[in-house]
Write a structure and sequence with these properties.
Helix content is 61%, strand content 0%. It is mostly helical and 299 residues long. It folds into 2 domains: 2-119, Alpha Horseshoe (Serine Threonine Protein Phosphatase 5, Tetratricopeptide repeat); 140-298, Lysozyme, CATH 1.10.530. Residues 1-23 form the signal peptide. One of its GO terms (molecular function) is peptidoglycan lytic transglycosylase activity. Belongs to the transglycosylase Slt family.
Length: 299
């Protein structure tokens, strides 16, 4: 049984691109922040009560190796709070927490039936994430080691969340370091806010309620970047130009706009992420009209 849970924990870590089975102290600190945020949303402490968001945050923390997140998410499945009730998922999470040394998990485990091997969807490894990991051989840990401590948490969050949006972590990091230098409190003269520098219109468009909440902000920025990559069919330069200047400007100029700021922005991103193409999900949005016209003319 112990071997089974070693494999399960490792699988959870691969699903989130984090080392759950061998989490280091920095990862556990990051997980504790996510757990604190999840608790606040679960119980409505200082923020509007939002059980679904709490479950997402707990799942992110489980990937980072948090036994408290395993235990709390297990109770959410056991009680049907924010997620559909599922005793099999609860049993798995409680067993993971027991394996990870949680003091109260064994008592909870006895209330939800036998372990069946069922795993919540949010912890299952995705094929697209594995393909990204194979494509990008960049040494994330070496990059992390080069950063001051106050930036490491943002980098860990980005590298954990990016694959969930089918974004290669290195591209997401390129956007974040260029936008805010990983500052969750950053505000621009144009009222762009947070790590991914979301303007209010973009935040609203991608359901970000608090742009200074790092997890919400990063998820919103990643959702926008995923949309842009689909809209420009994987063309990195056009997608990041759209992130900086808006897709309307890119469509209007039928390419990277002739703004010095945007052109320098694209050059900086491509220096950090030296690839011109990125996988994209064509189901997210139809291609830009100017790309469709260009393809039609080229035939």
């Amino acid at each position: 049984m112990r071997k089974i849970f070693s494999v399960l924990l490792l699988g959870a870590c691969l699903a989130g691109n984090a080392r759950v089975a061998c989490a280091n102290p920095q990862e556990l600190v990051d997980a504790s922040v996510l757990v604190a945020q999840a608790l606040a949303y679960e119980h409505g402490e200082g923020v509007p009560r939002d059980p679904e968001r709490a479950a997402e945050l707990y799942c992110d923390a489980v990937r980072l190796g948090s036994s408290e997140a395993m235990y709390s998410l297990g109770w959410m499945y056991a009680n049907g709070r924010g997620v559909a009730r599922d005793d099999a998922y609860a049993a798995t999470l409680f067993d993971m927490a027991v394996f990870s040394g949680h003091a109260e998990a064994a008592k909870a485990r006895r209330l939800v039936g036998d372990y069946s091997g069922s795993v919540p969807e949010c912890l299952k490894a995705r094929a697209v994430e594995r393909s990204f990991a194979a494509r990008d051989t960049w040494d994330t840990q070496k990059y992390l080691a080069s950063l001051p401590d106050h930036k490491k948490r943002m980098v860990e969050l980005i590298t954990t969340l990016a694959p969930r949006f089918s974004i290669e972590p290195r591209l997401a990091l390129a956007i974040a370091t260029t936008e805010s230098n990983f500052d969750a409190t950053a505000t621009s003269p144009k009222n762009a806010m947070g790590v991914m520098q979301l303007i209010p219109e973009t935040a609203s468009r991608f359901n970000v309620k608090d742009s200074f909440d790092p997890v919400q902000n990063i998820k919103g920025g990643l959702a926008y970047l995923r949309w842009l990559l689909a809209y420009y069919q994987g063309n990195v330069a056009l997608a990041v130009a759209g992130y900086n200047a808006g897709e309307g400007a890119v469509d209007r100029y039928r390419g990277v706009p002739p703004y010095k700021e945007t052109q320098n922005y694209v050059k900086r991103i491509l220096a950090f992420f030296p690839r011109t193409e990125h996988p994209f999900d064509a189901h997210v949005v139809s291609a830009s009209p100017f790309l469709q016209t260009f393809k039609a003319v080229s035939r």
